[in-house]
Amino acid sequence: MIKVVNLEKSFDDLHVLKNINYNFKKGKTTVIIGSSGSGKSTLLRCINMLEKPDSGEIFLEDELIDYSKNIKEVRQKIGMVFQSFNLFSNMTVLNNVTYGLKVVKKESIASSNKIALELLEKVGILDKKDNYPSTLSGGQQQRVAIARSLAMNPDVILFDEPTSALDPEMVSEVLEVMKSLTNIGLTNIIVSHEMGFAKEVADEIIYMDDGKIIEHNDALTFFNNPSTKRAQEFLQKIL
């Protein structure tokens, strides 16, 4: 679904991504784990071209993602859910979800509302459709953000540590929504520190350290029998 080839990214003197190569499989859920600063979020942002790679190539279903040519079309196919929700504070929940449908996809108001209401019900927040983001809890705002991403009917959704900004009691409600998305054929790429969640939903685990992919495997094998010493040490610290 997404092929990353020889990807490199630096910020000034900080070399963040070092020769990243990986094929993300269609319809599968890949969870990227690793210590803070290992390059996980930067990899996601490069896939969606929120950060322009210094070198290397990224393909979406065999089509090269070109920052200067087809990025608008690509971003309609690759949704993203951020750590900090990024909702429009001056719009209701319903309007946050319908905005992209009306502005980008040119859907009618009636069609946009129908899609949005169905998705808000799916993520369990339909009763808040007329509220503004400031009146919602963090978990509720993140569920709105997920619905907004789903509204564009993407082929891939990128989740950048979607629970890291939440209070502990709100984490489970967002993870439950995310679990439901792993069974509907979407390609999910998730950066997360939630190891229990990763064990449960991941088809594949990527472990990153110092800007490199150190190890990747199916979730059962990775957590039960990591093959590299660095992955073993990482799991010993967090499990």
Describe the structure.
This protein is α/β, with parallel strands linked by helices. Helix content is 38%, strand content 26%. It is built from 9 helices and 10 strands. The protein has helices spanning 40-47, 71-77, 93-103, 109-122, 138-151, 168-181, 195-201, 219-224, 229-238; strands at residues 2-11, 14-24, 29-33, 55-60, 63-64, 78-81, 156-160, 187-191, 204-209, 212-218. Strand 9 (204-209) and strand 10 form a beta hairpin. It is globular and about 55 Å long.
Features:
single chain; about 240 residues; alpha/beta; 9 helices; about 40% helix
Major sheet details: 6 strands, mixed
Q: Secondary-structure element order, as H and E?
A: EEEHEEHEHHHEHEHEEHH
- The coarse overall form would be globular
Strand order of the largest sheet: 6-7-8-3-9-10
Would you tell me the overall average pLDDT? 90
Ends distance: 31 Å
Tell me the number of helical segments per DSSP (H or I, 4 or more residues long). Answer: 9
Low-confidence runs: none
Total E-strand runs: 10
Summing up helix and strand content along with how strands pair, one would put the structural category as alpha/beta
Radius of gyration: 18 Å
- What is the share of helical residues? 25-40%
Strand content: 25-35%
